[in-house]
């Protein structure tokens, strides 16, 4: 791992911490984190990816080209799996919210799962995994072909998450204004 990558990682973390400010405790939900990370790791394992090898490739400068290529493919698929985890977590959180409409005090945990899980998945899929993938690609002697499927999949996930969020908030607004 070289100095620019460490500085880049610390820069991302610092930017997030400054943006979050004093609301850090509001941004941590263990259930959401388990749902997203467990879902992504489970999907990677189900897809036959070596998660340990992916982590080792990032931190080992002596990893051979085969391990690096497998890790690149793992992080590429991790980006897709993070979008699936975001959609599933948003659905689970939305179901919890809609189930608890009669008790407004119970809506918060469902919203936390819906929104924070989506945030965690997007941070992994659009911040961490592409950075790790790109760093590994730079270690190869030849360039890796771009993945043309990612942008349409990301747009589809963005549309789905947006529609689900608007629908949940519309139901919430309707239930509070009529009840």
Would you summarize the structure shown here?
With 179 residues, the protein is an all-alpha fold. It has 6 helices and no strands.
Question: Could you characterize what this model shows?
Answer:
The mean pLDDT is 84. With 179 residues, the chain is mainly alpha-helical. The protein has helices at 3-20, 30-46, 51-59, 65-99, 107-137, 150-178. It is built from 6 helices and no strands. The protein has one domain. Helix 3 packs across helix 4 (65-99).
Mean pLDDT: 84
Tally of helical runs: 6
Structural class: mainly alpha
Shape label: elongated
Task: Name its key features.
179 residues; mainly alpha; elongated
Secondary-structure topology with pairs:
Layout: H1 3-20, H2 30-46, H3 51-59, H4 65-99, H5 107-137, H6 150-178
């Amino acid at each position: 791992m070289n100095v620019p990558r460490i500085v880049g990682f610390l820069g991302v973390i610092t930017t997030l911490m400054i943006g979050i400010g004093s609301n850090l405790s509001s941004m941590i939900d263990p259930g959401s984190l388990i749902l997203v990370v467990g879902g992504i790791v489970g999907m990677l394992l189900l897809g036959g990816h070596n998660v340990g090898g992916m982590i080792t490739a990032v931190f080992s400068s002596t990893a051979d080209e085969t391990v690096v290529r497998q890790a690149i493919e793992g992080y590429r698929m991790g980006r897709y799996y993070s979008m699936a985890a975001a959609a599933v977590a948003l659905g689970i959180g939305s179901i919890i919210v809609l189930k608890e409409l009669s008790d407004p005090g119970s809506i918060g945990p469902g919203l936390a799962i819906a929104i924070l899980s989506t945030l965690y998945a997007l941070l992994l899929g659009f911040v961490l995994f592409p950075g790790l993938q790109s760093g590994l690609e730079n270690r190869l002697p030849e360039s890796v072909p771009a993945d043309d499927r990612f942008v349409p999949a990301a747009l589809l996930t963005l549309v789905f998450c947006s529609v689900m969020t608007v629908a949940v908030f519309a139901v919430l607004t309707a239930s509070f204004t009529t009840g």
